[in-house]
Every structure is written in C-alpha cells, then in structure tokens.
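Appendix C reproduces, verbatim, an entry submitted by the partner laboratory led by Prof. M.T., so that reviewers can inspect both the input and the predicted structure.
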Amino acid sequence: AYLTVSIEPLPPVVVGDAVTLKCNFKTDGKMREIVWYRVTDGGTIKQKIFTFDAMFSTNFSHMENYRKREDLVYQSTVRLPEVRISDNGPYECHVGIYDRATREKVVLASGNVFLNVMAPPTSISVLAADTPAPFSRYQAQNFTLVCVVSGGKPAPLVYFKRDGEPIEATPLPEPPAGTGNWAPRNLLHRDLDDTKVPKSLTAEGGVGGGQPLATADPPRGLAAERDPVTEIIPETVVSRELPRWVHVAEPIYYFRHTHAPVSDGTVEARATLTWTLNPQIDNEALFSCEVKHPALSMPMQSEVTLVAPKGPKITMTPTRARVGDTVRILVQGFQNEVFPEPLFTWTRVGSRLLDGSAEHDGKELVLERVPAELNGSMYRCTAQNPLGSTDTHTRLIVFENPNIPRGTEDSDGSLSSHCGFRLVLALTLTVILELT
C-alpha cells in the first residue's frame, strides 16, 4: 500500500476570520485514522484538535473486496470559526492506513501547514516626550513627538505627516552624540527676560557695545549641534511672543522606529520624530502619525496640533471664602485646545505664598485655613508649553467668618490685644460690682 499526504497552503488571515484547514491524501489502502495536531512551544508540544478513527465509523472503504489496485483520494478538513492570535502557528495532519500485505501493520504519513494570524492595531496615540516640563522659547531646543501603536501583528509601518504632507526624515537608529538628554531647559525669568533689552545693549554684553551680532546660517541638524542666531532688529525691544533665534532653513527631522513583542503575541510599535522646534512656524502646525498594516484596508491615524496655551480658565472654591476656609484655585481649561500639556506655575504677586514658598507647580493651588490678611491678595498662574506661555491673575477676597469673632485670632493663632483688653475690662467690672 502507498500513502501521500499534503495540506493546502494558507494565505495570512485576520483575527476573527473563519479558516478551514484542508488535508488531502491519496492511498490504495484501507483507512485507519486521521489526527490533526496544533504544534506549540517550537514543536515540543502537540495538541490534538481532531481525531477520526475508522474502527468506530461506518464510513469506511471496501477496497479489500477488489483484487485490482485502486486509488482513492480523501480530504479531511478542520474549521476554525473565529481565529485568534493564539491560533497562530503550525498545524499537522497525520494519516494512518492498513498495509495491504498484512493487516497488523499500519502505514503512517503526515503533512504540515503554518497558520499566520494577523491582527490590526487596536490603538494609536501621539504624545510629546518629556512633558510637561519647562521649555525655553528663546533658545533652539529639540522637540520630540512619540507615536505609540499597540495591538498589531505583524509590526506596522509607521510614518509622520505635517499638515497632510509626508515628512522626509533622517533615520536615527541610535541617539546622536550630545543629544541623549532631550530634557528642556527653564524659561528665562520674566523679570530678567533679556529679550526686553535693546539689542545694542546685549550684542556685546554691555551698554554701547557696538553693532548687533550678524545673522549667520546655522548648521543643519539637532539643536545640540546648532548655534543660536540673533535677529537683526537694532535699537528695538523684542516682543516676548517672538524668540530671539530664527531658522533660515527648513527643519531637519530625525526619525526612530522600534517595536517590542507583547505577551499576547502582538507588537507595540513606537516611532519618534525629533526636530529643532521653532515656535514661529510650528505653532498651530498639524502633525499626524499614520499606520499601514496588511490587516487594515486603509491607514489608521492620530492627529495633534501644536498650540500654545491661551486664556486659562480658573475657578476658586469656595466662591465666597471666609476666614479659616481652605481655598482651592484650579485651572480647568483654556480658550483653545492646547498641545503639548502645559506646565503650571503659581505665584503670589508681591509676596510669597501662604506656606512661605516662592512658587507652586501644578494645576491646583491650595491655601489652607486662609487668614484675613490674605484679603485682596493677587495670584498669578503661568501656563507654558514649548510653543509659548500665558499668564492669568485672580484676586482672593476673604470675608469674615461668624464662627470666628473678628480679632480673636491672628494668623499665628495667638490671642489679639483687642481680645485681651476686653477680657481685662470684663474682669475689672466684675470685681467692682462685688465690692459694692
């Protein structure tokens, strides 16, 4: 007897598809059994998923009744109604027939096929690296967008666009020398902002320092490799809305793409786009991360628009603060959609905060048990991101608290002189009445 087995090859399938595995075999012997296996752990484990035993089936061939040799073609199928990522891998079809010469001997043959299960990405997001953090608009600095794509198999093709046009970026397999730390630097102090000084004073570092620095073409590349360029604006004050450096050429983009396997068999892909940010041309620029994948009929994308904060909306609770209350001042939003996430800094105009600190970082400023002395105090919230900064102010009005008689307690909790005077006067009157 002879036996040949083959499994029809399968194209890649997508998660959720119905798949039929087909095992074709030709023989002139009598069927004994058919067994399907799913192979795991690199071939060390074989899990039975289907068994056909001819000894217990009425559907058998009467080939032994014929003296002449006769070929019969069979097909065994296994259907997977909704494939999952875990179904990915090799499958084997094992066929056994009785030998024509001796019924005690079984002839075995097998075939195998690999089921390639693809999964489209389940999520895509774009975020800014290392934010929120201080970022100087007055120095050329690097800015990095990160695109995270999860749930795909195999790894997707990820690329960036600016204002709908594909970005031609230089591949960056490893961090370039000198740019390993992309942490942004602090903003210049608003009271020491040298952009408000006439250029004739800053060009040579002092009063009457001569002509402004000449504008030079900066080298193309990352900010760590780029020298600042001074605008030629003699004898004028530069607005805070404009940085002191400008680009004289199109920005150079650097692109890095990595992917890491996930325990469920999918891949997390990360793509980064780095360039030297210029708030003058990058503010309100639309960047999109797009993904192509064989399991997707059309690209998948996520968009962000780089925008400086504008018009913070501040709320104060309670709306009518009384002496001794805990007051919370909170930034609830802006007049526009802001990206990247801003950094918030609180200060008290003309003085320190209630806890003695010069400033406080965060969306919320909490003033514990406000004293009457804070009535009329002004608080400033500075919101800044790499595209710009904005200030907003709010005034705290503190009302008397009927549960705390006026003047009974100073901010340090001690009795006031007025309270002591009233107490002495009351005791004196009591003694006089007893004597009379």
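DSSP finds three helices and 27 strands in the chain. Additional entries are available on request from the coordinating office.
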